[in-house]
Every structure is written in C-alpha cells, then in structure tokens.
C-alpha cells in the first residue's frame, strides 16, 4: 500500500462514524448524504423558471458539465476499480450500497460541476450555497462509510477538467442551444408564461 492510499484510509477512519456514535449524528449524516442531492434540481428549476437569461444559461451549462463529468466517472470506474471501504472490511457502513468503484464520488461530482459553473457565471450566492452543500455531502458520505476522502478530491478534479473541456464547445454552440431551449420552453409553457406565473 502506497503512502497516498495509507493517508486516504487514515483520513477515512478519522471521519467515519462508529457504532457507538450518537444515533442523531448518524441520522443527520444519512439525511445529508442521501437527500441533499435533491437541492440541485430544485435550484436549477427555480433558476430556469424564474431567472433571467444569465441564470438560465448557467443552469443549462451546469447540467451539461454534470452529465459529461458523470460520464467520465463511469469511464474511470471501468478503467480503474477502487473498492469502497466496506468492500475491504474497513470502518463501519450505515447504509446499503452497491459494491462498485468508489472513485470518484458521483454525488460530489454533480455538486462541484454545478457550483463551479454558477461561480464562473457570477452567481456567487447560489454558487456558494451549492459549494457548502456539496462539502456537507462529501463529509457525510465518508462519515456513513461509503466513500474515501480522496474520492471527493477526485470528484472535484473531474468537475474542473470537464468544465474546462466543455468551455470551447459552449463558446461556439451555447447561444444557439439556449435559443432552441428557450423557444421550446415558451411554446410548451405559453399558458402560465402569459399569465405572469413564470418568467418569459
């Protein structure tokens, strides 16, 4: 075992909850680890339905970065399988999880992709909200025993790389893509838009 993996395991054991940890702490960690991900579609939907052009573009671009980054995660998992802690009998696990590759974390990849996109779009408050939520999810998923700390570092790295790779494509085709989506949106939801219930 190399030094980096030894550090990874040591940090995991430091963060991972124990069977004698207070149940309320474990319950909070489980809720954050499993349910806070729903903040992402809620925020993106609000940005699209009630936001201006900049917010809508950031929401769509964030989705594109997220989906592409998750695709890269799948490729990484196929090329290099890194077992989850419970697969090697390390620490304690408080939720059932499929025994697949742990690196990188899909949850944190999504949070990092959206946060990065919002921050670069100048939507600082929304970006910081997603960043803080993503940090909480990262900590919670290590605490309940389904990820290592370096899985989270890998997730942020994949998100950053994906954003950089997508940037030139978005610069060329982003405006046309947005015009198409907004046109479809206005046709599909013309009735509530005309009544002022949604942003045009």
Can you tell me about this structure?
There is one protein chain. With 200 residues, this protein is mainly alpha-helical. The chain has a single domain, classed as Phosphatidic acid phosphatase type 2/haloperoxidase (Vanadium-containing Chloroperoxidase, domain 1, Up-down Bundle), CATH 1.20.144. Helices cover 72% and strands 0% of the residues. It has helices spanning 3-15, 23-35, 39-50, 53-79, 106-120, 124-143, 149-188, 190-194.
Essential attributes:
200 residues, 0% strand, elongated, mainly alpha, Vanadium-containing Chloroperoxidase, domain 1
Quick overview:
The protein has 200 residues and is mostly helical. It has helices spanning 3-15, 23-35, 39-50, 53-79, 106-120, 124-143, 149-188, 190-194.
Beta-strand content estimate: under 5%
What's the CATH architecture name?
Up-down Bundle
Q: How would a textbook summarize the main sheet?
A: none
CATH superfamily heading: Phosphatidic acid phosphatase type 2/haloperoxidase
Can you lay out the helices and strands and say which pair or pack?
Elements lengths: L2 H13 L7 H13 L3 H12 L2 H27 L26 H15 L3 H20 L5 H40 L1 H5 L6
Helix pairs in contact: 2-6, 3-4, 4-5, 4-7, 5-6, 5-7
């Amino acid at each position: 075992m190399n030094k980096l993996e030894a550090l990874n395991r040591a940090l995991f054991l430091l963060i991972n909850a124990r069977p004698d940890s207070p149940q309320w702490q474990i319950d909070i960690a489980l809720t954050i680890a499993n349910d806070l991900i729903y903040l992402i579609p809620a925020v993106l939907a609000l940005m699209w339905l009630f936001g201006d052009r900049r917010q809508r573009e950031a929401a769509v671009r964030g989705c594109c970065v997220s989906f592409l980054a998750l695709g890269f995660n799948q490729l990484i998992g196929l090329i290099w399988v890194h077992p989850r802690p419970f697969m090697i009998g390390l620490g304690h696990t408080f939720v059932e999880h499929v025994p697949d590759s742990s690196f990188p974390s899909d949850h944190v990849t999504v949070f990092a992709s959206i946060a990065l996109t919002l921050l670069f779009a100048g939507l600082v408050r929304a970006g910081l909200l997603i960043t803080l939520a993503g940090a909480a999810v990262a900590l919670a998923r290590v605490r309940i025993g389904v990820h290592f700390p370096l899985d989270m570092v890998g997730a942020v790295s994949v998100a950053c790389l994906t954003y950089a790779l997508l940037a030139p494509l978005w610069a060329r085709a982003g405006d046309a893509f947005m015009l198409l989506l907004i046109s479809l949106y206005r046709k599909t939801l013309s009735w509530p838009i005309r009544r002022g219930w949604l942003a045009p």
